What we know:
This protein is mainly α. 70% of the residues lie in helices and 3% in strands.
Amino acid sequence: MLQRIRRQLSWKTLTQPWRDVDWILFLIPIVLTVLGGLMIRSTELQTGSTNWIQHWVTGGIGVVLMLLLATFRYETLGQWYWFIYAFTNLSLLAVRFVGTTALGAERWISIAGFHVQPSEFAKIGAIITLAAFLSNRPSLNLIDVTKALTIISLPLILVFLQPSLGTSLVFGAITLAILYWGNANPGWLILLISPIPAAILANVFLPAWFVWVVLMGVVAWRTLPWMRMGAFMIVVLNLVAGSMGQVLWGLLHDYQKARITLFLDPYQDPLGGGYHLIQSRIAIGAGQLWGRGLHQGTQTQLHFIPEQHTDFIFAAIGEELGFVGAFLVLFVFWLLCLRLVLIAQTAKDNFGALLAVGVLAMISFQTLVNISMTIGLAPITGIPLPWLSYGRSALLTNFIAIGLVASVANHRRRLKF
């Protein structure tokens, strides 16, 4: 009898930290990682590569980290966020001096024979820093928003200079989502990104540019505390952004320019910059409803799509698993985002809610952009598909992010009857 009681007590002690864990939140990344390994193996079946094994091994490490972080008191991070911010920027600076160059970019640091991508882990650092900085502010004024933008500007610029345009866009999405959830005026966020559409419209359709400038002036008049001066400054800013569009265009690298323009008409350069997108469309269309079957896709098995195990893994899913498989992948991502929203709404404090929203923005933005670029709805930016694309740093980052959100869910207050 005493031995049975001891066993029950020891089992309760062992399972206590995970008693309130959101197991659906855990299950989704694991399922996606298993599927990712299967599809990576399919894309490399003819080459004998073992990237799929590395994907699963890294995923196993990620699962362990996720479980450990779920029991960790996430509030502790709020006391160390400046240290985390400093470490994030130092790691990005290290890439500039000791980084490994590949495909015209310096993005990796070699540690004990492993290539580590600091820009991936910097996403977590940015989320923690912004969430902690804004957590004690019930509503944000312009000074708070300016400070937050100043904080995020340093890692964003360092990532952009690697250059990594796709990752820097993820930083922007994270910042906008956290500011919005932090009760920043939505009009301010629109004004914040207004120069980008202005620069595009001025070079695409001039009348639309003028309408946009006027519209932004009205938004500034209605939302900024100094109505006349604010509206005037915003109008001037959008006019300058439009006229400076060509200058900004000149700052981009040639491959970045090609990615931005060729998605509109990839047949401008069918054997060059448009080749990826053309083959990706063919592969997804060939899958039809049920797909050609695992290891049966012609575009996948004959390697018509370069880098298919990383950026274009969704093309393999579309060809070999068909519309049904692609739809189920989208549904799983939607379910994951829904869980993240629910956790943000029920978090016990603002810091936990902002952490969940930052992770939500990171995952949803990467998923949306990656799938959109494989079907021709967005430029090719090199953003991986979470848990499905091969990439050890990105995979670990995503598991760490879910572990932090699981900690928020595990330590929230619950009603007991």
